[in-house]
Amino acid sequence: MAEEDGGGKDTSLIVTSDNIEMHRDKRRAAEKLMSGKPVPVQYREIPFEQMYTTDIVECFVRLLARKEHMSYAQAENLPVGAPTYFISHAWGSTFVDLVESVKGALAGAAQNDTKELDDGRTLAGTIATSRATLVVLDKDRVIPLTRLWCLYEIGSTPPQKLQLVTHGFSEKDVSQHIRNIDAETALCFSDRQNTVWDALIR
To answer: Which of these, 81, 107, 157, 184, is most buried using a 10 Å CB contact count?
Structure first.
């Protein structure tokens, strides 16, 4: 968060159903301007179904990763291995929808088919190793198709390994969004990310 919004302080920011949208807007603004500073955040009395993936990351993952200076999997000593599926998704959708979509897509997979990503692997190596790239889409906004990093992940995947996860709706429902994909106008949160993007595609 930016300093004027509480960033860099030891006092926790309290996020409730009344101010969560304002909190998200301020967090996104700080990310775009690269002006954010770490700050403890407490989410209170917010239905879990309303929390975005980015809220879950802020509430659980970043808190532990920042404290231990390592990835969440390393900090929790979770078993990791070569990934069998690479999940491409946008953080700006609800976490429950993400989990339900992936759960539905992998309903027939063996229990040990899904492993946490070893963060020492490069993106290209991870995609090459994975059995498939699952692109989790939401029906209304189809956010991954408007994000540069998601488009890069999609473009880095061989067509035969690419699967669109449309849990609860069909690919026809998002066909217009697919036709309108434009990397030039896709969202990237900072100039630094744009620089990385340019380096990757050249």
So the answer is: 157
